[in-house]
Amino acid sequence: LAKTTQPISMDSYEGQEVNITCSHNNIATNDYITWYQQFPSQGPRFIIQGYKTKVTNEVASLFIPADRKSSTLSLPRVSLSDTAVYYCLVGDRAKDTGRRALTFGSGTRLQVQP
Amino acid sequence: EAQVTQNPRYLITVTGKKLTVTCSQNMNHEYMSWYRQDPGLGLRQIYYSMNVEVTDKGDVPEGYKVSRKEKRNFPLILESPSPNQTSLYFCASSLSANRGSYEQYFGPGTRLTVT
Predict the structure, then answer these.
(1) Is B38 left (phi over 0), alpha (psi -120 to 50) or beta?
(2) pLDDT per residue as tens digits for the range B37-96
(3) Residues in chain A within 8 Å Cβ distance of B31
(4) What's the CA angle centered on B26, arms A103 and B105, to 5 degrees?
(5) What does the mean pLDDT of chain A come to?
(6) A59-95: string of b/e by CB count within 10 Å (b at 16+)?
(7) Model pLDDT, residue B2
(8) Are the beta carbons of B48 and A100 separated by less than 8 Å?
(9) Closest Cα to residue B17, out of B85, B109, B68, B107?
(10) Using the beta-carbon criterion (under 8 Å), do A99 and B106 form an inter-chain contact?
(11) In B, which residues are within 8 Å of A49 by CB distance?
């Protein structure tokens, strides 16, 4: 199964830009990279998704290098409400057996201080 | 409003008493999935379904069953619950997984306690 590696935790202050990097060496050729945000006792919430280069939406930017073996989620000017766990998710790289199981990494716990 | 609903939200039961957690989505999504989340272990996929009558095991399927008779519903069945199945469960759906896109919508979660 495709494995993702992220830092366990990060600390920041309000107003700063935060960059969280995820390593995914075995990403499948056709798979996108998806990032989620999760608050305690809530379901994860989709933030952003990309295939290559850069994607930006109203919440975040996602940077993906040409080899696609990593990705960086960028949160501009974080606030206290951005304190959460952030997960990156990629699909399964095995030969196409038709399986589409998904494995979340352990996530990055972001703590934003005043 | 597009959403994934789960019922019940909270459940306390005893070992061995069969239970079903329902999941329903109103977005006509093909891909549906169940996850469990335990402290320190993150989100682990239990079962998934790529479409009606098509289901497959995730990482931790032991002790669970699922069915997908209709596109909108994907119930999770615990035939004989045990205390190690005490967990927070999430149902999720996405349009399709065939194109490599995993933009999933998650339900609010079901907190299950098995005594």
Answers:
(1) beta
(2) 998 888 999 999 999 999 999 989 999 999 999 999 999 999 999 999 999 999 999 987
(3) 100
(4) 25
(5) 89
(6) ebbbbbeeebebbbbbbeebeeebbbbbbbbbbbbee
(7) 84
(8) yes
(9) B85
(10) no
(11) 101-103
